[in-house]
Specification:
The structure is a homotetramer. By secondary structure, chain A is α/β, with parallel strands linked by helices. Chain A is built from 14 helices and 12 strands. In chain A, strands 2-8-7-6-5-3-4 form a 7-stranded mixed sheet, with helices on both faces. In chain A, helix 1 (about 15-25) packs across helix 11. The first copy, chain A, is globular, with a radius of gyration of 20 Å. Chains in contact: A-B, A-C, A-D, B-C, B-D, C-D. Chains A and D meet through helix 10 of A and helix 10 of D.
């Protein structure tokens, strides 16, 4: 069975696991007060070009989003997000549980447009009852999006500009950031992202670690008590050095980039395989998630030897499916998929 | 340097780590929908004698407490706890952040008394303004307590009885449960605890895993939507099988008991060493945390080659310190400590 | 100046005010423990035909919605509502502040359709990731809606049926309920509403009182600790008898019905006046709110001697406006409006 | 029957009620956008000597405390308060419901000491695990306290100083502020209070209005979005002018001072009556609440013709009771009480 269900099906990248094994019996202080965490923060500051950035490691994506958003917003504010955004759909109401509304914007294959953000804010304050409504207090985007699409540098600049014109922070959910950076079509760098976003996180769970997300706060006016917020949100790992060790490994020798490039390369092989088999992708994703509309008979056939994500019926005899690659996907996996497709 | 600061200074017990390494490249479904998690749940149901218990794995203690308590309480209710309880002091307000008050009871070396619980509830409902106050909706205790003390079976029965007489659940924080079960003086078993508590958790972080706590819900009327609650609290691990693998290892061959016994045995060696050196423990803890009042000069001397937890000054020339053992503490560590004490 | 801005521009209906004046110097217990509150509850139980209903008086609509919804929902649940619903738009995030998501449905002139509710719930549970999303835990509708439209008895039955088939309560926001009951086209009674809804409130603020809303809980399995919830939400009036006195007056001699009928009759006069002047209402509202699209020149002219609510531009030269009547609107007001329209 | 149960047993002071009656049929904009509210704000700014203060009217005390405290605190912060403080005991967990812990200090007949505040803050930041605990983010005191005691000007200065030295705001709950200002022994003025507190509220409910509390924000860096916060907390009155009319009446011609002085004068008559009858007050309250320890036989006798508040047994044959005066208490009431006491 070849598996393309998601990008969190294996443990850690072998280099990451090796580092955990190597350091396993060392004794260090807890809660991130250890040399590995310090080193990882420095490596990330260097990689992002933000010598002053605060870096904080959390365990998972939902808790990271909830902690950062709750820590930024005032009580009367909500967070702007694409209606397809992870926080708007798939976090069991974690944002609302901390007291904040998700203010949804239309999405275009997962992306929001700067002009829609601008329009929302302008119409909001033009409404004379605006104080009876939830004020837009920040913008959340995911890079890449839940549909695998990537904001271009120009789009990021526009979003950053509209946010800063209206004095609200831009927060980027980078759960799969490595696969956006690894996309051939990507025209932005981590350093450029760091200049444009006020806060973002570099996802580890889907890009080589057992777990872990690195929050980077480039706008130091925000999240001044991040440690306590993380603790309050139950997101502080006792053995914090596990995060330090893993991110040190990802960022010391270019592993993060290599993983991103690897996942994307194999995703492009999947894309081409389906194209050759006559199925165009339904979304122009250049990252590690690929979406196809396939005849149900083809799906049934593939399922004999492959697993992937079912997204629902489309028309009478077709369905939409998602194929995901990760650092652990191999060229042999794709060879087998091609064979299944009769190529 | 020998280190007794806390019980979360190393990675995972070698057997646990070995299991993670062995399974690292397997591909499984996420969020606990994997065979290891299923196996771990079964092993725990067996060990606790509760074939019907719901078992759920979370990452850390604070998030476990916040999730369980938030899921049990109605909006107008609070949680009874010792004023020294972890949720009352050291969780950055995580319980209040989910909307609930911690109703504090006096503590006796970390323990609460059934009669105090009874009195609180009786006085509460005897007050005719009780509807203006926060109702006691559950009882939280830790076993062992933050001071290393252990409730006897009789004490647990009394607490369980007073709770059930008043129709409120009893929840037991077992962050260090292994070290209570491993105490020579302990007269309760995991199966007995399961009969008396409505919900409790079996701590992994301090007892052999990299991270992870196993919530056991024996009263199935409670926490019916635990999965969603866990997700909402940001406590759902994407690669859930990491928890399954670790708890399977702890519970398949008695490792959990061995770790508990090991930690306690070395703690008792520390206790005896200090006693021989002329320092009685200030709390009668029979678990892996030991508390002493030492002259500051002795502390300074020990610090040259040992690290431990400083709890604050006591009188003019003394201070209170805590020594903690864990699965990774060795007899050689204690030998060295004895040497430092001049024994 | 004749004023049609809203239905909360004057104090209390003279009969209500007279009762407050008459009882002003009486001394009674606080927080609703007074004979007037008891009497008002009985009158409402009688009017609604629910001898067992719990009745509770709160001060305002937003706090009533927040208290009821927070008291009904479990932590992992949200409230279904029209995207135009008051709780979704104009309550400054009060629902989210208590931790719950508003799950929006399309609206049809303010109303939701039973089939959309059915579809939402079915699709929700058909999605295998539903535990990662916010579960629909209740349905909120307003009767009449924010657009003045009224659910027919048949529509209410359908909504009640779909809710109860899926075991979620139906909650009706009756801020302007009197004006729905007073609509000539209305084919439902208060008693029928009480059979179909699990909880609803009878609005006083816009229908004759200085302030005050009467929550009626017909499904006694819900909101068992309503008093404490009301207190916790800051919605418990110290001088609770002010609410008792006012609702006793509204319900002792048919005043509530008279006010509703009066407001609607004058609203129908407004409607006819605009129709005669050539402007059809843009929404078929038969209650006390009327919506028209008027040329801006007409609006400017009317504004010389009348005030009303501006809802925004429509096209190049038109705008939408809202005219609202209440118990204090007089036939003379409408005569003047007709004159302004050149009738 | 003469009644001394509480200070919210009647409606409004006749002058206040007269103003409500006089203005009842006027039509004004809602939510405080009316000339009466504007006038009341100006009168209060003048009375407090703070030309720049923001003034906002809410309905009741619990909602005022919850709104102000929630609006001031960051997510990781709690509010310091006497363990006897209203927010710590009698608000059904409203503070916790908004996510914040009440950090309790010892009380001395209801008051806190500046040195205890200082000690709490110093010990908090001296604890190296302070980031795991809830940070003290503001101080709440009540003036007068729940026990009728009054902070002297010197005590207020000390509290203000310790707060501002540690950069946390001082918030004063003035539910009964009129009776503190009216105490003969009081040595502070409203203007002085305004210089020392960052925020406070002037209670109306217990001092002459039907309902209503006036929040005064003298530190304009705080609570910048107070209107939306008030709305979100369900504390925004639709017919806001009812609050404007009432507070205009209280502050236009010295009525607030007269009510305070009246209530206190009669409370002092009660005190002297009990002293002459042989019962010293158990708390040295110089405001409108008086506390006595009486033999149960005396209490039973008094209850034949008087009502008052029972605070619980004291010893075998005695109990503690509370007598409260208000603007509606008369000299004849006290004459009758004296007769009951056999004077």
């Amino acid at each position: 069975m070849i598996r393309f269900d998601s990008d969190y099906m294996a443990g850690a990248h072998p280099e990451v696991l090796e580092a955990l094994v190597r350091t396993n019996m060392e004794l260090t202080a807890g809660y991130g007060n250890d040399p590995y965490t310090t080193e990882a923060k420095e490596l990330i500051r260097k990689a992002t070009g933000c010598a002053d950035a605060e870096v904080m490691f959390l365990v998972g994506g939902t808790q990271t989003n909830a902690t950062v958003i709750d820590g930024i917003l005032s009580r009367h504010e909500g967070v702007l997000a694409a209606e397809s955004g992870h926080i708007a759909v798939h976090e069991s109401g974690a944002i609302e549980a901390s007291g904040h509304k998700v203010l949804t914007l239309p999405h275009y294959d997962g992306k929001v447009k700067a002009e829609d953000v601008e329009q929302f804010i302008e119409e909001f304050y033009a409404d004379e009852t605006y104080q009876h409504m939830v004020a837009p207090g920040m913008l959340y985007i995911s890079q890449p999006t839940e549909y695998g699409t990537v904001y271009s540098l120009e789009e990021l600049k526009q979003l950053s500009e509209v946010c800063h014109n209206h004095d609200i922070p831009l927060y980027v959910d980078g759960a799969r950031l490595g696969y956006a950076l690894g996309a051939e079509s990507a025209d932005f760098t981590l350093k450029e992202l760091s200049q444009l976003a006020d806060v973002y996180y570099i996802g580890g769970t889907k890009v080589g670690t057992l777990f872990g997300e690195a929050v980077v706060v480039t706008n130091r006016k925000l999240l001044k008590n991040l440690f306590s917020l993380v603790k309050q949100h139950g997101a502080l790992l006792a053995k914090g050095r596990l995060l330090g060790v893993q991110f040190t490994t990802l960022f010391r020798n270019g592993l993060y980039e290599r993983i991103g490039a690897h996942g994307v390369r194999l995703a492009m092989r999947i894309r081409k395989a389906f194209e050759r088999a006559g199925y165009e992708p339904i979304i122009d994703s250049r990252t590690n998630q690929q979406f196809f509309r396939l005849p149900n008979s083809v799906i049934d056939n593939l399922r004999q030897e492959a697993s992937f994500d079912y997204w629902g019926p489309r028309g009478e005899v077709d369905s939409v499916v998602r194929f995901v690659t990760s650092w652990y996907t191999t060229d042999e996996d794709i060879d087998k998929l091609e064979a299944l497709l009769g190529l």
